[in-house]
Amino acid sequence: ITKSEVWICMELMSTCLDKLLKRTRQPIPEQILGKIVVATVNALHYLKERHGVIHRDVKPSNILLDDRGNIKLCDFGISGRLVDSKAKTRSAGCAAYMAPERIEPPDPTKPDYDIRADVWSLGISLVELATGEFPYKNCKTDFEVLTKVLQDDPPQLGSEFSDELRSLVKDCLTKDCKKRPKYRRLLEHPLIKKSETEQVDIAAWFAEMTKLMEINRHS
């Protein structure tokens, strides 16, 4: 370490979920999604409870995987401190995953929001990961996406998915932020409780996906 340089050594993860979707051209199976939800919600809950921080940029490209099956949340560049459990910066984060109350605050004189904005972002991410498609993929601009978020019904999963996963997504994508669950309530959701104890070999699944990515790269 010199007076002007600090070197931070960090582990190298294999990929992010955004790249995985694009390169495998396949949605992520429910059992794997369950483990992803558990890891992500626990990470967000830890940030809030231990450090008083809101992430503000939850999306598939910020959820990482490695070849041992570890799942981690990354990119805290626009994370912010919570003051009385509220955040105030409206512009931080990716518009495509932004919660309605961040786009158009219910009370313009108090444009603050809380961790439930990240819960919305998680819900949009889950729809994308489960179906393999971003729910607002037909929009050409961020403005179109934001308009749909405000005016349309929230995206939901179809009947081909389990009741537990559909229920979790529906809870996350509750438009009224006051009715949307915070992390403590989410951690009690049946899907998360089941996924916490379920034996899932993420490493083996990821090994298969790595092979598929290589095949697709040459096709």
From TrEMBL:
It is an enzyme of class 2 (transferase). Pfam families: Pkinase (PF00069). Gene3D superfamilies: Transferase(Phosphotransferase) domain 1 (1.10.510.10). GO terms for biological process: response to stress. SUPFAM superfamilies: Protein kinase-like (PK-like). Residues 1-192 form the Protein kinase domain. It catalyses: L-seryl-[protein] + ATP = O-phospho-L-seryl-[protein] + ADP + H(+); L-tyrosyl-[protein] + ATP = O-phospho-L-tyrosyl-[protein] + ADP + H(+); L-threonyl-[protein] + ATP = O-phospho-L-threonyl-[protein] + ADP + H(+). Keywords: ATP-binding, Kinase, Nucleotide-binding, Phosphoprotein, Serine/threonine-protein kinase, Transferase, Tyrosine-protein kinase. Its EC number is 2.7.12.2. GO terms for molecular function: ATP binding; MAP kinase kinase activity; protein serine/threonine kinase activity; protein tyrosine kinase activity. InterPro entries: Dual_spec_MAPK_kinase, Kinase-like_dom_sf, Prot_kinase_dom, Ser/Thr_kinase_AS. Belongs to the protein kinase superfamily. STE Ser/Thr protein kinase family. MAP kinase kinase subfamily. PANTHER family: DUAL SPECIFICITY MITOGEN-ACTIVATED PROTEIN KINASE KINASE HEMIPTEROUS, MITOGEN-ACTIVATED PROTEIN KINASE KINASE 5. This is mitogen-activated protein kinase kinase. It comes from Arion vulgaris. The lineage of its organism: Eukaryota, Metazoa, Spiralia, Lophotrochozoa, Mollusca. The gene is ORF68330.
